[in-house]
Amino acid sequence: MNPGLITHCDWSTSERKRFVAAARLDGDRYRITAPEAVGQLDSLFTSFREQVGEAPILSGFDFPIGVPAQYARKLGITRFGDALLQFGSGEWADFFSPAEEAHQVSPSRPFYPRAPGGRKKQHLVDGVGLRSTTELLRRCDHATADRTRACELFWTLGANQVGRAAISGWRDLLIPALRNNIIKIWPFEGELADLLSVGGIIVAETYPAEIYSHLGFSRGFGKASREGRRKQASAMLNWCERQRIALEPDLHVRIEDGFGDTQIGEDMFDSIVGLLGMVEVIQDHWTQTVPDDPSVRHVEGWILGMNPNGKPTTPERITGPSVHMPSRVPPIPQPSGSLSNHLFERMCPACNKKLFARWPWGWDAHAANNCTGISGLTTEDRKRVFKERYLRES
């Protein structure tokens, strides 16, 4: 079941820089309005529900949702959702209070530092009892072909830090909503399709920078500048037309304008980019896949739309007039060589019905659930047969 409403919040520790963009299901397509200020957090999910009645809602936030596997093992955390409800109380009372000094850092008080001045990431590593900064990264935080690695979850200093966003997002938004049974968090509580079929509000982690290459943006375009954002307008608008996404006139104007020259322009820009990535996931179900790794599914979490099978490629950027892509294209002969060399658009070699936009990304979900060209008693049997026939490594 497709959600009646998809929302994406570009998050910030500053309330004035938090923006939410929304896509409403209108017949068989999504219609997107211009981003708005997030406003009061205690009524955010209620405001979403009021817009679409009982229809399922998918809501994305670009702050980390999950903890690194090595940190979780050290503390005996086996399910992030259960641990999240404990953070900030009892033995975890100081969890959300960034340590001022290195000696205050501990597994139950991992965020650091409160302020700059002689602070080192090694202090954080030592304080939580790990061996390196790498162990402070989740699997989805590592670099891909199209973006650099994310910052360590618990670090709270610098322009690219995510720690303070996690603190406010978990403490002020997710925990109250979980305690009131308002939300379910993907992927910890199940497959996205299953959660949507039940209804309710499903929350997922997003990362707009992960979507830039999907939309065909040029590398290093300069998101912080109006001109940099304006230069991506053609790619964004063309992508929306190919995906049959309707844009309200005001939003169309803002995209072409680069979302203005104020400091909040990049926040509004990323709220829309993240939303487009979420719509892509709903329209192409194979992008809903999560690594078949219990630590990812139960503890670390995953970024919605991120390729779990390898590094994504950057599609050719279309800068000319809007184009209409055919719904099906002829099969392309599979080349020899390793899987990493097969990254191009092609039809499923088994059923000749599924179009893979970035082959072989998403083959496992398709093989497990939808492919009519293979058979097997279990999903794992189906994936094994598909891989043996069509994804031979060399």
Fold and architecture overview:
The radius of gyration is 21 Å and the shape is globular. The chain is built from 14 helices and ten strands. 33% of the residues lie in helices and 11% in strands. The model is unreliable at 311-342 (pLDDT under 50). The longest helix has 19 residues, at 265-283. It folds into two domains: 1-325, no CATH class; 339-390, no CATH class. The protein has helices at residues 44-52, 69-75, 80-84, 121-128, 163-179, 192-198, 208-215, 226-230, 233-242, 249-257, 265-283, 294-300, 363-369, 379-390; strands spanning 5-10, 19-26, 29-32, 36-37, 57-61, 183-185, 201-205, 246-247, 344-347, 355-359. It is an alpha/beta fold and 394 residues long.
Care to give the gist of this entry?
33% of the residues lie in helices and 11% in strands. The protein has helices at 44-52, 69-75, 80-84, 121-128, 163-179, 192-198, 208-215, 226-230, 233-242, 249-257, 265-283, 294-300, 363-369, 379-390; strands spanning 5-10, 19-26, 29-32, 36-37, 57-61, 183-185, 201-205, 246-247, 344-347, 355-359.
